[in-house]
Amino acid sequence: MKEELEDFYREFNLIKARKNPSHINLRTHQTQAIKNLMGWFQKNDSSNKGGILVLPTGGGKTFTAVRFLCQGPLSEGYKILWLAHTHHLLEQAFYSFGPKKIDVDRGYEVGFIQEPKNRLNVRVVSGNKNQYSINEIQPTDDVLICTLQTISSGFKRGQPNLQAFLDSCDGKIFVVFDEAHHSPAPSYRKLIVDLRETYKNMHLLGLTATPTYTDEKKKGWLKDLFPQDILYQVSINDLMAQNILAEPIFEKPVKTNFEPDFDDAQYNKWINSFRDLPEDIIGQLANKKSRNQFIAKVYAENKHKYKKTLIFADRWNQCVQLCEFLRKEGVRAGTMFAHVYVTPTGRTLGSGVANAHTLEKFRNDELDVLVNIRMLTEGTDVPDVNSVFLTRQTTSKILLTQMIGRGLRGIEFNGTPEAYIVSFVDDWSHKINWAEWDPLEESGELIDEPPIIYEHPPLDLISIDLVRKLSRLMFERNNIEIGPFLKSIPIGWYHTKFYSLGKGEEDYNEVNRLALVFDDEKDGYERFMDRLVSADLSQYKEEEIRFEDHQKNIQNWSEQFFGNVDSMGDIENNIFYIACHIAQNEKEKPQFFPFKERDAHDMDSLARNYMEFNQIEADSALRNEYARNDRYWFTIYPSYELFKQQYDACVNRILNLRRHKLSPAFKNPTKPGQGPSDEQKRKVKEKYPTCLCCGEDRKQILEVDHVNPRFMGGKDSIDNLQTLCIYCNTAKNTKEIDFRFNQTNLPKPLPEIPDLTPPHNNVEIIQTWEHYLQREVNFFYCAGAVKFVDASNPYVWKIELNEGNKPSWLKKHLRTLADKISVYRKDLGLDGPDVIQLVNA
What we know:
The chain is α/β, with parallel strands linked by helices and 841 residues long.
């Protein structure tokens, strides 16, 4: 159960509050910040009033601003309009004026508001049904804490309740602009400019942890909005030196080896919504018992290092599971919820009494771990945290910053000198731009020039994209057709940046996208951008823009500028990103960054160097290459086996070229888009939802394969398409095998079982080995010959064949196959099989 509506409106009795003002002592940097803010506020001049407070994450931006507002503007009769672009920030600001339950021992923050004011009314306004709507604003309100979208839209259309509030200010309006570095969003600029034009004496205070630039040319719009520039700032290094902040120590991300079921259709629908992960995907992560058990085990095995730890979860049942698994490991763990949850059995979680009891035990060192759901906004005092566990990745920079900030309380705030940040990452099959902590961005340092960003980006931002593209080329085309290896590696990327607001949403997102550029595409992008600079892009300037609303226009641009290019890139999405960037950044083109190390990652060159080696020599040379510190192979290919598969494909391509007497630089002159359509692929996967060869059902590794390869004249028609997993597709290569038929059409058996690569991932799972055994046998019969496989008994594995497939062909190879698998499994620490049996034969 979430907060009720009344939770977001508060009437403070200031007569009572002034008798017990807040006992929280200001630190040196906060005292100096308020002194500077008061000097700016009290200065009498006719210029536009606008300045910025820069404090690093954990430095108390919101608290400092609220203390200043109480001592200054609110005491002088001003009303406050606090603007933020996410609901997290709204709640954080609201509870800074006063938490749900006032602790009389800590006093009232609003107790600093001077007479003659005797009451203070604070209201949260947004489109959220659990918060107040713009229609419920009252002229008697003193502080409105609102989403930008609500106020921007309301001011534009002259909403009467908002207008009545603004008029009630009698010119004394003070606007707080949370996360001020987001000011470039067009709606922010327009709203502030319009407010200032209407209310000439308006004061504007920006809050941010992000450095701004002293170069006037770089500041542009920022200088227009905040003409007095930075009023006060302090760096994260200064606060760590004063023991106010703990030093964050970021551990190497921990891989869970969990593969979320995020299919192409759902991903494509989500990717241009620019929101955090879909709720059902978050649910998959939260509800996976083995994953939660793994997280608990990571803490338990490192308890001496991580000590008192906050674990951020997403679902109440995940909190309960984590807590139970931790307790089984001998860890003292408790749960704490920001909201009240009623479980299906009627159990109530998250009551105020239970939360207070759990927090008290954590404070008194009676608990080692506190598991919670986004306990971020209520001003909850969480002391001496040594570590923060982030149980999943997020695309929300705000959410990530708030969670990390919970662990940065230094010794002066009863915290710790250091804080470990432990992140858990999953095995995603799609490219996702995760939010990252940028030490420079969060430092609070003033810099003269902006950092060179994305010149050497983390390769994991593009590796999944590369592997998927390479996989499709390897498995859906004959490997002659794919062209040189470097054709599949980008020559560089454009860094695009713009602001988005999803349909029906109020939380603005700052979107960063890398538009990968491949061979022969650069000229098209440059001509396209030259056209945009002189075009009317007003439609792309709005944050509410959606890809699907402009798809026809985007397709026309794609045909016009890239129609003759055999593209490897995601042209249409890149066109959309670039158009939004140029529209929202005053017609400025995104910066291009060349992939300087591209030529050092030419797999064809490796193939030519090593293909004459014997297998042992080649394997040794390749393992050394894969392990090189000056290469990105490990990031592009998460396992050596995948790296080796790509190498083998390059060798096969070169050998095929020699047989066909073609140049090594040969590219198949096909037009972009050749291959089955998305609709054809959908129909094939709907008809055959699992791999027809091995039975694999994980959607993210299923591909549509040509029974008769295109290189051999096979068509893109439905009757020539089948569903195979990535591993079976690799093994099939350019052979014509129809796994849709359960009976072999071979006139005689193959001389031996195909030597397919055994699995290297998820080897502890029985189904992994059942899929592998089924794959081996079906490739032997060149058909979907296997009816049933059972490897539940590690020592005796069983196979049943479909009718019409001669068991005698297989029987003489079962001993050799069992021995091969047993030796491989022994190296993995697994037993069996001792024997593989044919049943009903």
